[in-house]
Specification:
The complex is a heterodimer of chains A (about 375) and B (about 375).
Chain A: H1 4-13, H2 15-47, E1 54-59, H3 72-79, E2 94-105, E3 113-121, H4 125-128, E4 133-137, E5 146-150, H5 151-156, E6 165-168, E7 171-180, E8 189-193, H6 194-200, E9 208-212, H7 219-228, E10 234-238, H8 239-246, H9 248-283, H10 285-293, H11 298-324, E11 331-336, E12 341-346, H12 351-378, H13 381-385
Parallel strand pairs in A: 3-8, 5-7
Antiparallel strand pairs in A: 1-9, 1-10, 2-3, 2-9, 4-7, 5-8, 6-7, 11-12
Helix pairs in contact in A: 1-11, 2-9, 2-11, 2-12, 9-12, 11-12
Chain B: H1 4-13, H2 15-46, E1 53-58, E2 66-67, H3 70-75, E3 80-88, E4 101-105, H4 107-113, E5 117-118, H5 121-129, E6 133-137, H6 138-144, E7 151-155, E8 162-173, E9 182-186, H7 187-193, E10 199-200, E11 202-207, H8 213-223, E12 231-235, H9 236-245, H10 250-278, H11 281-290, H12 294-326, H13 342-369, H14 372-378
Parallel strand pairs in B: 4-9, 6-8
Antiparallel strand pairs in B: 1-11, 1-12, 2-10, 3-4, 3-11, 5-8, 6-9, 7-8
The chains are: A alpha+beta (about 375), B alpha+beta (about 375).
């Protein structure tokens, strides 16, 4: 075996060329990691929104909360259902909710309007959604025009500070608290009381009813019972699955873009790497001749040059990881077209993505180095040494 | 011209290398053109809108309807020359995987207000007379294999039930922003089936003069200011632009990635081109000995770099320009009228020139300044 040190030294011998190739690979890896981090952040935000212990009830056929509508009768039928868990006070853990979109002007550019979710909840909602915690202030009091604002909204929209008034649906709403929800889509929502939201929005109708299952394993049974109930026409979804499904469309688009863009980039970068390695080998033909004369087998020459190419790629991969790391946590927002609402989420650069980026780099290096290394291994000693 | 053969011979010596270099430049510029076209297409869609059309929405938000009774009151306002209304339907076809827009419109007035929707006169007539008929954009024909006269059933998501429409006509939009993947049916039928709720999602108001737009919009909103459903009226362009802003930072993201792509591949390519030039030190010395001037050698090396960069650019940019219309690409319905703008081609060409300079300048200068004696000493 030719010692790896030989390759490392050769690489260091031509710093400019190595740096340029590594930088090129690094940028490809950075874009690869960055785009997957974006897709990942979006999916995670929505996946975290739902709980596996909750059931979301919509009108039959509705594919989002926006297109659903349920009467008060449905809400009482569900509250009386035996599958619903009860709280410490003995009341069923059910939240019939009003779900609407309100146009709000953004803080940095008031001509830009975003459709923000306004969710009217019952006081049980704060228990049903156990990932929601109030970080500051008091929960809206029943019977008053008060709202609680998700933490992702406070930076991006004006008048969302505690004590300020937010105007939508032709009324003023006092902001009494801020809440977080473990990075989920709820953090991009405004919560108020359902009885306050009903008259100003769509009248006597809820959009969804969410309840906590008494026995999380009994979802199928509860679903069957609710959907078979002749008094109402509803679809019951496991809350976690429902929100994961809401992320599907955009998540797929983002993943597709990531793969397509980095795929094309990678091919371009591999072509570049092949050229670089061919040129490197051409200029080192005598060296290779010496190696072969010394008795190294063509096989080890092949492996040696593959290792060299992979080594350059790994440097590039590490650079790419370094470029991509600062993206972690950056908040961006877009419209989730499945629900038509704006959702803010952060880039999530995970260790798994970083290692994927490194593997990607090595694969590029090995593919790029293979044919040049093959040529090196096949050099005739006499010719190479001439 | 007599040096062309020399340049070509040089390029042809390492055929594989030249091809790979050209291919990587082509890929970089293809990707650049594609990403930038996403941005320009979205910007173009935001610019769509007849100057004489206003859109009136419910001030509470896009998803809230307006009473149908508003129509007559808007029509009576000075400066209003035409009026139509529409309602988002949101029906699902089949398994719902292939989403397309569908809405109910007041057919006669809608087609009058939108001359961009072009369909044969007999089909238009058939549609206007068929209460449960619909017209569709020509993309839907190819997407689903529907035929004229066929019945199509949508499942209502907002408005329950199965809704069956007969395809009376196929239109082709003269403006891509109209959308060629839309199903339009009669508002009268819609209203009847939902129990005469008397709602309109939005009104389209035609005005006499574009310069009156702001004043007329204000007068419409003033009429309904203290009603149960206050309105928000703006030009159609503003309405379209508000959809474009919903994407948030997507444009910025695309431009950033585009830059990274171009930069990454150019780095690698420039490096390869420089390395190949370095191998030819001896040859250049020989050429100098034979009497080639410094300036000529500089030019020859630059032309060689330029040939690689520009050929790659032509393939990449040309490929993108031809490919997208050929496959009728519209970004799954999100990017109607997707095309590579002229500005993108110009920027792409500039990038190629930049690459030529970046990769050609160093070797060209080296070639021009090369001392013959020293260079020839290395040649065996």
């Amino acid at each position: 075996m030719i010692p790896i040190a030989y390759n490392v030294r050769s690489v260091v011998q031509r710093p400019v060329s190595t740096a340029l190739t590594a930088l090129g690979v690094g940028l490809v890896v950075a874009v690869f990691i960055g785009m997957l981090a974006l897709a990942n952040g979006f999916s995670v935000a929505l996946a975290k929104t739902g709980s596996t212990r909750n059931v979301l009830v919509l009108r039959k056929g509705a594919d989002s909360e926006l297109s659903s509508g349920l009467g008060r009768d449905v809400s009482s039928i569900i509250a009386a259902d035996p599958h619903v868990a009860t709280g410490a006070d003995g009341r069923p853990l059910v939240s019939p909710e009003v779900y609407v979109l309100v146009p709000l002007a953004k803080a940095f550019d008031t001509t830009q309007i975003a459709n923000v979710v306004a969710r009217g909840v019952s006081d049980q909602a704060w228990l049903v959604r156990n990932n929601v915690t109030i970080t500051e202030g008091q929960r809206p009091a029943s019977g008053r025009a008060e709202v609680c604002v998700g933490s992702r909204l406070t930076q991006r929209f004006p008048h969302t500070g505690i004590g300020q008034t937010l105007r939508f649906a032709g009324r003023d709403w006092t902001v009494t608290c801020h809440f977080t929800a473990a990075g989920s889509a709820f953090e991009s929502e405004i919560w108020g009381e359902n009885e306050q939201f009903m008259p100003v929005f769509r009248g006597e109708v809820f959009q969804s009813i969410t309840f906590r299952l008494k026995d999380p394993a009994a979802f199928e049974e509860a679903q069957r019972a609710l959907q078979a109930d002749k008094r109402m026409t509803v679809d019951a979804h496991r809350e976690s699955e429902f929100y994961a499904q809401q992320s599907q469309l955009l998540g797929q688009i983002l993943n597709f873009l990531a793969i397509m863009i980095t795929g094309i980039m990678a091919v371009g970068a591999v072509f570049g790497a092949i050229n670089t390695m061919y040129a490197a080998i051409a200029s080192r033909a005598p060296e290779i001749g010496v190696l072969l004369t010394l008795g190294f087998k063509p096989g080890s020459v092949l492996i040696s040059f593959l290792a060299e190419s992979a080594f350059i790629a790994v440097i590039g991969g590490l650079l790419g990881c370094l470029f991509a790391l600062p993206l972690n946590g950056i908040v961006t927002s877009t419209t989730n077209w499945s629900s038509f609402s704006e959702i803010a989420f952060s880039f999530r650069v995970t260790p798994a993505l970083l290692s994927l980026g490194l593997i990607f780099a090595v694969v590029m290096g090995v593919i790029g180095g293979f044919f040049p290394a093959l040529r090196a291994a096949r050099l005739q000693v006499v010719q190479a040494l001439r | 011209m007599k040096y062309l053969r020399l340049v070509l011979a040089n390029l042809g010596r390492h055929k594989l290398r030249s091809i790979l270099t050209i291919a990587s430049v082509a890929l970089a510029l293809f990707l650049f053109a594609s990403l930038r076209s996403v941005t320009t297409t979205m910007a173009a869609a935001a610019q769509f809108g007849g100057a004489r059309r206003l859109v009136t929405l419910n001030a509470t938000g896009l998803v809230f309807p307006l009473p149908l009774a508003y129509g007559n009151r808007i029509k009576a306002l000075p400066g209003v020359t035409g009026l139509s209304w529409a309602n988002w339907f949101g029906g699902r076809y089949g398994d719902g995987k292939n989403f397309f827009a569908n809405f109910a419109v007041d057919a006669e007035s809608y087609l009058d207000l939108y001359p961009e929707i072009v369909l044969p006169a007999d089909q238009k007539q058939a549609f206007l007379q068929d209460r449960t008929g619909a017209i569709i954009g020509d993309r839907l024909i190819s997407q689903f294999g529907w035929k004229l006269g066929q019945n199509v059933t949508l499942q209502g998501t907002i408005f329950q039930g199965d809704w069956t429409f007969k395809i009376d006509g196929v239109y082709h939009p003269t403006d891509p922003a109209i959308g060629d993947n839309v199903l339009i049916f009669h508002h009268a039928y819609f209203d009847e089936r939902i129990g005469r709720a008397g709602i309109a999602g939005w009104y389209i108001v035609e005005i006499d003069d574009p310069s009156h737009a702001a004043a007329i919009a204000k007068s419409i909103d003033d009429v309904f200011r203290n009603s149960s459903s206050p309105t928000k009226t703006g030009t159609e362009r503003e309405f379209q632009a508000s959809f474009a802003t919903m994407w948030g930072n997507v444009s910025f993201l695309m431009s950033t990635i585009g830059l990274a792509v171009v930069f990454a591949i150019l780095l690698v390519t420039a490096n390869a081109m420089m390395m190949s030039a370095r191998e030819r030190t001896g040859e250049i010395a020989v050429l100098k000995t034979v009497g080639f001037s410094d300036r000529l050698l500089f030019a020859l090396v630059m032309v060689e770099a330029g040939a690689l960069a520009l050929t790659g650019a032509a393939i990449g940019l040309g490929g993108a320009t031809l490919l997208y219309p050929a496959i009728n690409f519209n970004g799954a319905g999100f990017l109607p009228g997707f095309k590579v703008a002229t500005s993108t081609l110009i920027i792409g060409a500039l990038v190629a020139l930049g690459l030529m300079l970046a990769s050609g300048l160093v070797p060209a200068l080296r070639a021009a300044r090369l001392p013959i004696v020293q260079a020839l000493r290395k040649v065996e």
